[in-house]
Amino acid sequence: MQALVIEEFGGDLQLKEVPKPKIGPSEVLVQVSACGVGLTVVNLLATPGRVKQYPRIPGHEIAGRIVEVGSQVRSVAVGTRVTNHFYLTCGQCVNCRSGRETLCLASIGNVGQATDGGYAEYVALPERNVIAIPDGVSDIDAAIGSDAIATPYHACIKEAKLKPSDTVLVVGAAGGVGIHMIQMASLCGARVLAADLGQVKMDFIQTIGADLLIDAAKGSIAEQVMSATNGIGVDAVIDIVGSKNSLEQSLASLAVGGRLVIVGSSPAGVYQTDPSFLVDPQRLLHRGLEIHAARYVTLAEIGRTLELIRDKKIKPIVTQTVSLAEIPALHQAIRNGQTLGRVGMIMT
Ligand SMILES: [Zn+2]
Quick one: CATH architecture of 2-132+317-346? Predict the structure, then answer.
C-alpha cells in the first residue's frame, strides 16, 4: 500500500510502498478515505522524544471503511464506515472505567505516534477506538469531527461549562479547532469574543459568526476584552494557543469566578520558547478563578459530536483538501502559519 513514512526524527515524510498492516484479534483494518491534517501532527513530529520508534506513519483524525475484523471483534463489522478516538487506552484502569479515558494510567500513546496512523491507504485500529459514522455525515467531516470538532464539544461543555448568558473568549480562533470552538460556544448560547492575530484571520473569523472580533495585532487582548465588557471580563476563556503570552492574557481577561480552559499547546521544543506562565495565587483566590486542562475527549463525546454534525447543529469547515502525496507540502504551510481553518486529506 501507499503511505507517508517518516524514517527518523526531523526527517521528511516520504511517500512509499509499504506492506498492508496485519491486525490482531481485537483490531480492525480500515481502508482510509480521509484524514485530518493539523498542527497536532506537525508539533508531534517536531517534538523530540514523542515518536519513540521509527519508521512511523503519522495521522490520527481518520475516516474510512472496515475491510477486515479480528477474531475477537464483536461491536463492528466489515463494511461499517468509522472514525476513531486516537488515544490508545487500556479500557481497564480506574480512569478508563470512570469516563476519563484520556487520563488512562496504562496508555501506550496515540495512533500515529505509538502505532501507525492514517497517512496511508490502510490502518489497523483497536476495536475499542473506532466509532461508526452516522448516515448523512461525510467521511472528511467525520474525520475532523473526531478531534477538531469533538475537542470544542468537550472544552465548551465539560470544562468551560458554557450556558446562555455567558460570555466566552476564544484565543486562537482562526485555526481548525478555533473555528469550530466559535460554533460550539454559540450553540451553548454564549456570547463569543474571538481573538487571533492579523486582518486576514479577522476577515476569516468574521465569516464563522463570532459576536466580537479581537485582533491581537492591535494591542493587548485583555485590555480589548475589558473595554468590550465594561471592565468586567469574560466568564470563560478557551485558549487554543497555549503560549506564555496567550495564557497570561487569557487569565487577565477573566471575570470574577471565571474559568480558563487550556486546549492549545506550544511545546518549547517546537517554538523555542518556554510556555510556562505566571499565576498570582492571591488573584486566583480573591477572584475565585479556575484553571482547567482540557485533555482531548471521551469516546462518548465523539459520538455526540457526530450526532451534532448529522443534525446540522455544527457545520464542519474544511478549507482545503489535498491528496496523500500533497500532505508534506501542507505540513510546511501549517508550520509557516499559512493555512486558515481545518485542512484534510482525501484519498484519491
Ligand atoms: Zn486505562
Answer: Alpha-Beta Complex (3.90)
